[in-house]
Amino acid sequence: MKKTAVLVLIILVCGTYASAQKLAVKIIDRQENDTDYTYVVPAHWFSNSNTNVNCNGSDANVNCNGSTNSAGTITPAHQVPYHVRGATFTLQLPDGRAAVVNCESKFKERMAGPAGNHRSCRMPLVENIEAEFHGDKAKLIWVVSLDGKKMQSETYKVLAILDRPKGDQN
Question: Is-above-0.70 flag for pTM?
Answer without folding.
Answer: no
